[in-house]
Write the structure tokens for this entry.
Amino acid sequence: MTAVTGVLLVLGVAATTVAATGTLVSPDPRDRLHFGGAATTVGIVTIALAIVLELPGASGPTVVVALLVLLGAPLVSHALARAEHVRERGEWHVEDIAGSS
């Protein structure tokens, strides 16, 4: 394992650990989504880069999986935030969002 790969893995695991800890201790569901976003961006990208550098033969599937996670995570976060909003306030209305700013 090269030094660069090791640093990338440590950064990825550290970011994921901090995000998981924040998710566990956060009292608000919306705050939990923000912590989850860090795990799916910083953590995934650095770990994927480490895999691509260390195992060039696995770079194709690694990049595909990383892109799927990077593209899918915002969609899932939005759906979860919307579901939490509906659960908390009832139906979804555009006025709820426009009037809250």
